[in-house]
Amino acid sequence: MPNIKPEDIPADNARIPGPTRRIFLQRSAVGLAAAVATGSAWAEAPASATENAVKLPLIQDPKTEQAEETPDPNSSPDDRVGYAIVGLGRLSMDQILPALSACKYSRVAALVSGDRDKARKVARQYGLRETDVFDYQNFERLADNPRVHVVYIVLPNGMHKEYTVRAAQIGKHVLCEKPMATSAADCQAMISACRQANRKLMIAYRSQYEPMDRMIVKMVQQGKLGPLREFIAGNSQNVGDPSQWRLKKALAGGGALPDIGLYALNAARFLSGEEPFEATATTTRPDDDPRFKEVEESVHFVLRFPSGFTATCMASYGSHESRFFRLQGPQGWAEMDPAFGYNGLRLRYGALVDGKNAVTEITIDPNNQFAREIDHMSQCVISNAIPHTPGEEGLQDQRIMEAIYESAHTGAAVKIARPTGVWRGPEPSEETF
Ligand code: NAD
C-alpha cells in the first residue's frame, strides 16, 4: 500500500474525492492540520473504500436499463470518521443515530446527554462503551477520546453557539443543526472559533444533500426551466405543548421562521444559486393563544433577487402539516409536494412536450438524506475540503431572517448585503447507498 504524503492532501475547497479516489483518515483526534503543522508521522493509511469495492456481473442490458446498483463500497468501521452526538432528543434518536448506521464513512463514537440513564441505554443500542458517554459538564473530556473527530450539535438553537465554540476549543470539527444560531453575531463567533482552531464547521442543511432537490439544482443549472422567475413555498405544522423550547424566544430565536420557514428561505437560495438583496415580511402572533406568548405563529416573506427572480414564502406553526414549493421559469416549472420532509418526497416537472403542457412525475430512489449529509462532512474531514454548507451559509440565512423580522416590525422593505466571495464548498458526491 503506497504511503500518503502531506502533498497528496487536496487544498481546502478542492473537489471531494469520489469513491474512485484514495481516501484516508488519520486516527488521531488532533487531525490532519495539526499533523501537517507538527510534521508528525502519518498514521498508516487504511484500505480505501475503493479497494473494498465488489463488482457483480450485470443481468440486464445496460444500454436500455438503469444499471443495477450495488451500493458503493464503504470504509471499514475502524477507518470511519467518529461523531459525538450532543443532545439525545427527537432528531438524534429518530433520524441521526439510525442514519449513522447507514453511512459509508461515518460512525457514532460518543454521546453527550444530561440524562445518563438514557444515554447508557442508547450507547448499548449502538455498540458504544460506558466511557463513550459524556454530559454537558464534562463535555471537554471529549478531547481525550481519539475516536471522536466531529461533534454533531443537536441541541436547542440557542445552545448551538456555546457548544460549537467549546467543541472547536478542544480541537474537534463541528457539524451543527439548523438554524445555525439565534443571532448573526453568534453565527460569526462560531465561524471565528472554528477558523481559529483550524477546524471545519458545517451546518446540517439536509435538503442540500437530498437527491430530488439536487436534481432540481441540476435542472436549473442546465437551463431546463429557463431564467428563473418565481419560487413559491410553504412550510407548516400545528405545534402542541406550549412549554416546549421551540416556543421560547431565548432557546429558539423565533417561532415558525427559524424552525421551518428556514427550509423555504434556504431552498430559494440554493435551488436558484442566487442571493436576495431585499426582504419584505409580516408576522402574526395571536394574543389569545398561549403557545405564542414569545414567538410568532406565522411569517410571510418576499425576497427579491438581482435577476428579477422573487421568492414568496410562508411558514406557520398553526396550520396542519403542509410542505411544498414550486420553482418557475418561462420554459417550465419544478415542484416538490411534499417538500422539506424526511421521506415521501415527490417531484413533478411541467413543460411543453409535443405542443402540449405536460406534467411529469419524476420518481427516484429516495436514499437517506441524513446519511448523505453526514458522509459529506466526513469526506470533507478526510480530504480537507470546505463543506458544501459551511458556517457562512448559516450566517447568511440568519442575516436574511433578521431582515425579515425587521421588515415585519417596521413595515418597510429591508436591504440585505450580498455575501462576499465563494463560501460553499464542493458539491456532495452522489454515491449509491
Ligand atoms: P428535542 O427537543 O427533541 O431535543 C433537544 C435535546 O436537547 C433534548 O435531548 C434535550 O434534553 C436537550 N437539551 C439540553 N439542554 C436543553 C435545554 N436547556 N432545553 C431543552 N432541551 C435541552 O429537539 P430536536 O427536534 O431534536 O431539535 C434539536 C435541534 O435539531 C434543533 O436545533 C432543531 O432545529 C434541529 N432539527 C433539525 C431537523 C432537520 O431536519 N435537520 C429536524 C428537527 C430538529
Structure description:
With 433 residues, this protein is α/β, with parallel strands linked by helices. It folds into two domains: 6-205 and 372-387, 3-Layer(aba) Sandwich (Rossmann fold); 207-369 and 392-415, 2-Layer Sandwich (Dihydrodipicolinate Reductase, domain 2). 28% of the residues lie in helices and 19% in strands. It is built from ten helices and 15 strands. The chain has helices at 31-38, 90-102, 116-125, 160-169, 184-196, 211-221, 249-252, 256-272, 369-383, 391-410; strands at residues 81-86, 106-112, 133-134, 150-153, 173-176, 201-203, 230-236, 278-284, 298-304, 310-316, 322-329, 332-336, 347-353, 356-362, 414-415. The strands form two sheets. A nine-stranded mixed β-sheet has the order 14-13-12-11-7-10-9-8-15. A six-stranded parallel β-sheet has the order 3-2-1-4-5-6, sandwiched between helices. β13 (347-353) and β14 (356-362) form a beta hairpin. The radius of gyration is 22 Å and the shape is globular. The chain starts with 30 loop residues before the first helix and ends in an 18-residue tail after the last strand. The relative contact order is 0.15. Mean pLDDT is 89; it is low at 1-47. The structure holds nicotinamide-adenine-dinucleotide (NAD). Nicotinamide-adenine-dinucleotide is lined by residues 87-92, 114, 154-157, 177-178, 204, 206, 245, 251, 259.
